[in-house]
Amino acid sequence: MWELLAGTAAGLALGTVSGLLPGIHVNTLAGLMLAGMALLLPLFGPVFLAAALISALMAHSFLDAVPSTFLGIPDADTAVAVLPAHALCLEGKGEEAVRVAALGSATGVILAIPLCAALVVVMPAIQAAIDWATGILLAAVVCILLVHSPSLRVSLAVFLGSGILGLFAFRYSYLAPSPLGQSAVLMPLLTGLFGISVLIFSGSGTIPPQEFSSIDLCGRSIARGSVLGTLAGTFVGWLPGLSNATANGVLCSALDYARDRREYILATSAANTTNALVGLAALFAIDRTRNGVVSALTVLEHPSFHLLLASAAIASLLAYLLTIRLSRIASRMEGIDRTHLALGVCVFVTLVAFLSAGLFGLLVLCLATALGVIPRLTAVPQVFCMGAIMLPVMLYSFGFSLF
After folding, report:
1. 103-141: per-residue pLDDT in tens?
2. Residue 403 covered by a domain
3. Backbone angles phi, psi at 380, to 5 degrees
4. What distance in Å separates the CA atoms of residue 68 and residue 92, rounded to the nearest whole number?
5. Is residue 105 one of the residues assigned to a domain?
6. What spatial distance separates the first Cα and last Cα of the chain, rounded to whole Å?
7. DSSP labels, 242-287
8. Each residue of 33-56: pLDDT tens digit?
9. What is the distance, to the nearest Å, from the Cα of residue 2 to the centroid of all Cα atoms in its chain?
10. I need a surface site. Which of 171, 236, 264, 375 has the fewest CB within 10 A?
11. Does residue 164 fall inside a structural domain?
């Protein structure tokens, strides 16, 4: 038990670091932990490391609301395209946006824990039918997103282009001098599509004075956003090839994020946190991995599902309190040079890409970054870059031999 609690505390610290630094995902830390597993395992033991991994994942899902709200403020000429959290921050309500996101993540945990316990019991019996329909379900999700896209042609081109890049990266992943195999190219692929390409356009606009009195959300909106977010997070967490960005895109079709900004923030936060827990349930129920942290768990003699759920719950509670605390002081970040911070993050993740996948990883990172800037330049949702994962999974589901 002490190992579990110590690992939870360590994971909370790691998740706080990855959550507060834009462009660094907890999967990156999991990859680094995997690379040093031969050294870490004898020192800390499998229970400590397993708890640290799942706790870091949960903490990250809470704390990433802080930099996404305060450090990604656009310049004045791009203010029309800001996300809901950015828009609230520009109105002086950034603290409220962070608190709404923390509330959404908390309600997501509350709903997802019993849901995940049910998934572990029920899903193994029907997983074969789901596997058969995976390609069809993914195609349906893509069609829904395309219908709601501001530009069908550009969105389709980004989806197919990223899909081809994903096929290329996985097909030649053996060129990456790493024991991680195909997993080695995931980090540079997704970092380029969703990390560096977004940081390039993060801007350096000034954060206005912030004021907070209360969260402007009624109980009905909280309940609806929590349920919709949990359902979306469960859907994308269980099926391969989907991501938090996909859940956010699906929620766009159910919620008017321009009008109901707070409910949209709450729902997407619930979806992101639910997705993290559902990935853990998928490991224990059907022995499938849905994210980098869960992949790292597979190399450990991890504790039982219930103990890891307990670790996740403890980390979530502490991360919620920490996020609320940081929301009160986050407006002081306006003195930080966000341009240099973004540059430092880009250099760090580039180094990690090289260490994990060599020169081939750098090639994938460059190609993915070039493709990832297209949505930013054309004002189409970044979610279509998930074609890098979705298209290979769809083709495999339809019986095409890719590798």
Report:
1. 999 999 999 999 998 998 888 888 888 877 777 887 888
2. no
3. -105, 155
4. 15
5. yes
6. 43
7. --HHHHHHHHHHHS-TTTSHHHHHHHHHHHHHHHHHHHHHHHHHH-
8. 766 666 777 777 888 888 888 999
9. 29
10. 171
11. yes
How many angstroms separate the Cα of 251 from the Cα of each of 58, 79, 158, 185?
Answer: 21, 22, 20, 29
**What is this structure's pTM?**
0.77
Q: How many CA atoms lie within 13 A of 317 on its CB side?
A: 8
Residue 110 and residue 99: Cα distance in Å, rounded? 16
- Res 317: pLDDT: 95
Give tens-digit pLDDT for 224-240: 889 988 988 888 788 77
Distance CA 62, CA 109 (A): 11
Residue 236: domain span: 2-208+217-397
pLDDT at 245: 56
59 found inside a domain? yes
As given in the structure block, the two tokens for residue 274 are 């639910």
Residues found in the chain: 403
Evaluate whether 402 touches 167 at the Cβ level (below 8 Å): yes
What pLDDT shows up at residue 77?
Answer: 37
Q: How many structural domains is the chain composed of?
A: 1
DSSP per-residue letters across 332-398: GGGGS-HHHHHHHHHHHHHHHHHHHHHHHHHHHHHHHHHHHHHHHHHT--GGGGGHHHHHHHHHHHT
